[in-house]
Structures are given as C-alpha cells and as structure tokens.
Design brief:
About 25% of the residues lie in helices and about 15% in strands. The protein has a single domain (about 20-90), classed as Rossmann fold (3-Layer(aba) Sandwich), CATH 3.40.50.2300. It has about 100 residues and is an alpha/beta fold. The chain contains three helices and three strands.
C-alpha cells in the first residue's frame, strides 16, 4: 500500500480557558500534554500564574506565551518550571 499524501498540519483538539482557576482543575486531571500559558489573565498576572499552575501539572509541558519580550522574565519563567518562553513579537502568525 503506498503512503498517504500529506494533507497539511494535523489539527489537535484543544481547550481555551479564560481564567487560570477555570483551567487548573482540568489540567490537574492530566488530560493534556502541553499548556500554552498567557501571563496576563483576569484572575492572575505575570509569573504568579506560572507559580500557581506548574506544581499541579508536572507531566504537562508549560510554554509561556506573552507580549513581554524581556530576558529576565523569560529566565525566571524557566526557573519556575516552564519548558519554554515565546514572545508574541518573535512569532509570525499564519492565518487561513
């Protein structure tokens, strides 16, 4: 049987939570492998969001996604347990 042709990126189901408190219980169940965390949320801001989230979901890779393009914040996020730090300005978004 020949290989199937590539049909573009695979769509992976995801869930968006507008507040850290709303998503934390779901994430603690271990249902997700990757968490894209925005540092400014209505119920938490800055690295406090990361400090509250990481201890409860040790199996998930947390990636901080933020408008802050500061090396000091990125380094602190890595020390607090995030796997990576992405500044919005450094990413070129593609929309279809």
């Amino acid at each position: 049987m020949p290989p199937r042709p590539w049909r573009g990126p695979k769509r992976v189901p995801g869930v968006v939570f507008d507040r850290l408190a709303n998503g934390r219980a779901t994430l603690e169940e271990g249902a997700y492998d990757v968490v894209l965390l925005v540092l400014i949320l209505p119920d938490r801001t800055g690295l406090e969001s990361l400090s509250r989230l990481c201890p409860g979901i040790p199996a998930a890779a947390v990636i901080v996604f933020t408008g802050l393009n500061e090396e000091a914040v990125a380094m602190e996020a890595l020390r607090k347990g995030t796997r990576d730090y992405l500044a919005k300005a450094s990413i070129q978004m593609c929309y279809r």
